[in-house]
């Protein structure tokens, strides 16, 4: 039988936490990561990243990392547990980052090995999403130039039916990153973490190849703090400029669970509300009176939410002549995260109307207080009469359930699309039944 938790993850991400961004080539279906760790050694520039975090994905400092199978550069088999025995810096990469000796990733790995190996610290890289065969091809061509030992996840990206999100979910959970994330949202690559000699998490640090002075240099402050915590005796020249205070390593108390809410019923009037665009303009639902509004409650940390955006862009273009607009209402999120998304990713979706709920993560946020949303993505179709014509919870790649929902608001949708939507709903119903 299909485990009910997996089915729940497929349909919607729980509206909790702030996680890393989804990896671009990875199909959706995983849940958000644990709440973000507090900033440590954050520079005065508010847009700068902290030097390190005392966590990695859902693992906090001191947690033992899961084991997972790996492939060596020569095609041999090993496991992640084999790296226990000494503090280790680990760069999680894609193989294309290892194909040039002058690539920033290679420069950084070379610098880390030179700087920290004398202290008994190991430095390795783990390639992801390529699979064994592709990795060995890259290793054969470029392996002699690699400054550190490189290993790979034997599993590559999912190669089956990309529209079968449940199969994608099961596959991704077995990958190296999926095991590390314990079924949660995986990090964008490249990413870096440090562990001690017992394979326990020291924390993670930024491997930002866009920084002007080079990832290898800017990473040192975070690495040095993590190594000090592991008991590595760094020389005065290699100590961090600022040593993190003891309280920086304390795990935050879990946030109290919010009281349950019930989604606003279909057929009810859609409550009006105000959001704010990146430019500071106020946007109201009533601004679109007389149009059909696809009201999508989403968040930057929600993998399925972000995976649905390309589909929403297609919807906006396909049905704009029928007075359909898509309002992407960012909810349960930080203003800084929304701003970053708008600056870096929103240009991909020019037909969507992006706006943010200034209530942030508060229980007074519009999605929860007015619409009873408890998990996202949650999409309401507001008809021209201002009433909720239909709603869709969750998103899986390839589904056309929102098109069928639009039809209930009087939008003309092709019979072929409606047939596909019925098949999508039947699949959901079958999985829900199997999960009981």
Description:
- The chain is an alpha+beta fold and 436 residues long.
- The chain folds into two domains: 17-249, Glutaredoxin, CATH 3.40.30; 274-435, Glutaredoxin (3-Layer(aba) Sandwich).
- 27% of the residues lie in helices and 19% in strands.
- Helix 8 links the parallel strand 14 and strand 15.
- It starts with a helix and ends with a helix.
Query: Largest sheet, described in full?
Result: 6 strands, mixed
Q: What proportion of the residues is helical, as a percent range? A: 25-40%
The CATH topology of the largest domain is Glutaredoxin
CATH architecture of the largest domain: 3-Layer(aba) Sandwich
Q: Which structural category fits the helices and strands? A: alpha+beta
Radius of gyration equals: 23 Å
Average of per-residue pLDDT values: 86
- Annotation, overall tally of beta strands: 19
- The low-confidence parts are 1-47, 209-217
Secondary structure tally, helices: 12
Tally of domains: 2
Distance between the termini: 8 Å
Secondary structure: elements and pairs:
Layout lengths: L3 H8 L1 E2 L37 E2 L1 E2 L2 E2 L8 E3 L5 E3 L8 E6 L10 H13 L5 E8 L2 H11 L6 E8 L8 H9 L2 H5 L10 E5 L5 E5 L9 H4 L1 H10 L44 E3 L5 E3 L7 E7 L4 H17 L4 E7 L4 H10 L8 E4 L9 H4 L5 E2 L1 E5 L5 E6 L7 H7 L7 H21 L1
Helix pairs in contact: 1-12, 11-12
């Amino acid at each position: 039988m299909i485990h009910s938790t997996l089915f729940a993850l497929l349909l919607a991400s729980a509206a909790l936490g702030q996680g890393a961004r989804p990896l671009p080539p990875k199909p959706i279906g995983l849940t958000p990561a644990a709440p973000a760790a507090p900033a440590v050694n954050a520079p005065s520039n508010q847009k700068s990243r902290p030097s390190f975090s005392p966590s990695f994905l859902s693992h906090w400092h001191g947690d033992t990392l899961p084991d997972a199978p790996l492939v060596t550069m020569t095609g041999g088999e090993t496991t992640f547990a084999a790296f226990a025995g000494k503090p280790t810096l680990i760069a999680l990469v894609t193989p294309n980052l290892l194909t040039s000796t002058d690539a920033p990733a290679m420069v950084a790995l070379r610098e880390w090995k030179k700087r920290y190996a004398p202290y008994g610290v190991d430095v390795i890289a783990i390639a992801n999403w390529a699979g064994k065969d592709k990795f060995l091809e890259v290793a054969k061509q470029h392996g002699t130039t690699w400054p550190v030992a490189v290993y790979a996840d034997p599993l590559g990206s999912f190669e089956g039916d990309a529209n079968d999100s449940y199969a994608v979910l099961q596959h991704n959970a077995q990958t190296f990153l999926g095991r590390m994330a314990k079924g949660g949202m995986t990090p964008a690559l490249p990413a870096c973490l440090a562990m001690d000699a017992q394979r326990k998490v020291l924390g993670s640090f930024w491997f930002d190849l866009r920084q002007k002075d080079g990832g290898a240099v800017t990473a040192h402050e975070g690495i040095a703090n993590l190594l000090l915590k592991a008991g590595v005796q760094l020389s005065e020249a290699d100590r961090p400029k600022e040593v993190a205070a003891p309280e920086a390593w304390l795990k935050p108390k879990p946030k109290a669970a919010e009281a349950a809410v019930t989604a606003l019923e279909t057929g009810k009037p859609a409550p009006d509300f105000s959001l704010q665009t990146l430019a500071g303009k106020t946007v109201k639902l009533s601004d679109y009176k007389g149009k059909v509004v696809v009201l999508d409650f989403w968040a930057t940390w929600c993998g399925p939410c972000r995976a649905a955006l390309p589909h929403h862009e297609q919807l906006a273009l396909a049905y704009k002549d029928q007075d359909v607009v898509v309002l992407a209402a960012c909810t349960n999120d930080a203003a800084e995260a929304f701003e970053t998304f708008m600056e870096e990713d929103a240009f991909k979706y020019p037909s969507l109307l992006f706006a943010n709920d200034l209530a942030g993560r508060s229980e007074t946020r519009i999605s929860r207080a007015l619409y009873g949303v408890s998990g996202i993505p949650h999409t309401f179709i507001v008809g021209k009469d201002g009433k909720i014509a239909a709603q869709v919870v969750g998103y899986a790649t390839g589904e056309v359930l929102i098109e069928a929902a639009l039809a209930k608001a009087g939008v003309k949708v092709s019979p072929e699309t409606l047939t596909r939507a019925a098949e999508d709903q039947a699949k959901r119903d079958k999985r829900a039944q199997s999960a009981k």
